[in-house]
Amino acid sequence: MIQWLEKNKIQNKLFSVVWSIFLLTGFFWLTEWFIFDETGTCETIWWVLEYIIVIVSAGIILLNFICRKYSWKVILAYGIVGVIVLLSTYFSKDYNFIPVFLILGAAYQQNSKRVITISALLTAVFLLIMLICSQTGLVENTLFWRFDGTAPRQSLGLVYASTAPSIYLGFILQYVYLRKQNLRIWEFAILEAVNVFYFWATDSRVPFYLGTAVVLFFFIENLFRNHWRFTKHLKWLTIIAPGLIAAGTVIVYFLYDVNSKFWGTIDRFLSCRIWYGREALDTYGIKLFGQDISWIGYGSGAPEGTYNYVDCSYMQILLQFGVLLLAAIVFLYMVGIYRGAKRGDYWMVCILLIICAFALMEPYLLNLISMPLPILAVLALDSQSEPIKFDENWLKNAINAE
After folding, report:
1. How many angstroms separate the Cα of 375 from the Cα of each of 122, 124, 166, 192, 365?
2. Quick check: helix, strand or coil at residue 308?
3. Which among 148, 226, 284, 299 is most buried, taking Cβ atoms within 10 Å?
4. pTM, to two decimals
């Protein structure tokens, strides 16, 4: 049986299918079609797809176990994380991390080029469809406004104005990972032009500024023949960086003083993100396995009540899901960065660190829909010398990579 499974690559085929369903289901949940559906049909479809994701992912994990793909260290680590996820789910009453946990288990030793190619293609198609539909009236294009009443911000058919540009930032990072040193000037130019468009349409500053910085950074780095000559000497610092960032972030929220002019200046620059985070910290406190919190924001379909949304991903996970789940997610990033540094893949190292930085201001630390790249921590990594090349069969070769 094991030989038959390996010969027919059943796990690979199943994972490509479930990964695609997982992404499409997540994208669908973010649309205003889903949010404003009054019939309940969209929610029913979404739940059916969620059950399919859970069942198929669990089946892949079982097949991997039968084929002895997991070492005892992996089984032990995955088992510990599984217990943490279950306990955090029970106390938070939020089930979103269960399919993520199963997807990560099913993804073990899948080919990174194939997995990220699928997610990048689906992301690009989704963003294009939503742009067309929102501009032609096929989906509601809600307008949001800043606190001062200026700058109308288009939702582009999604739950909030910053959602589309954040997903696009995730696409930029995926595209950079796939192309690496093969990136050309015209590709950087197109990536930045689309980034500017999203900024013009949504006035979402954080994704725009970070997206521009990413494009410029990798463009400059690709001008040099000796890539990452300085980064190579920071190996251990980059590996522990996610832990330092997470710990530093929590400390900042504890140190924040609402009466301080210094903190007030920083907080105004960050659109009061620290203030709301400190308010949530004082209100709910920190639990080992999290607690039931209803976040109320300004997005479409948000529940009524006083705004309390915490944008910082580290604080949101810490407050809602607890200390141990945040620690597990940070460890996942550290493993990914270690594996990238060990193989000399500093594109991957820098991309994971960029997501860690983005998570300081937006809730995308482990959102595999918008930012799929943390999944690299468990995938089979290609050599840094094998990025995608746009030849006649590039897509076929990428999708069929083993």
Report:
1. 16, 19, 18, 25, 11
2. coil
3. 299
4. 0.94
d(CA 80, CA 358): 27
C-alpha 204, offset from chain centre = 17
Q: What is the mean pLDDT of each run of 10 residues along the chain (402 residues)?
A: 64 94 96 89 94 96 90 94 97 95 96 95 98 94 74 89 96 96 94 97 93 95 73 81 96 90 84 90 95 87 82 96 97 96 90 96 95 96 78 82 76
User: What are the DSSP E strand ranges found in 125-276?
Assistant: 143-144, 153-154
H or E element that contains 136:
helix 112-136
Cβ neighbourhood burial of 377 (10 Å; 0-12, 13-18, 19+): buried
Longest dimension (CA), the chain: 68
**In this structure, what token pair is assigned to residue 44?**
């029913």
Q: What is the DSSP code string of 52-92?
A: HHHHHHHHHHHHHHHTT-S-HHHHHHHHHHHHHHHHHHHHH
Among candidates 280, 221, 228, 232, which has minimal Cα distance to 253? 280
* Those residues with Cβ within 8 angstroms of residue 178's Cβ, 6 or more apart along the chain or in another chain: 113, 116, 117, 120, 387, 388, 398
The answer to whether residues 322 and 288 touch, using CB atoms and an 8 Å cutoff, is yes
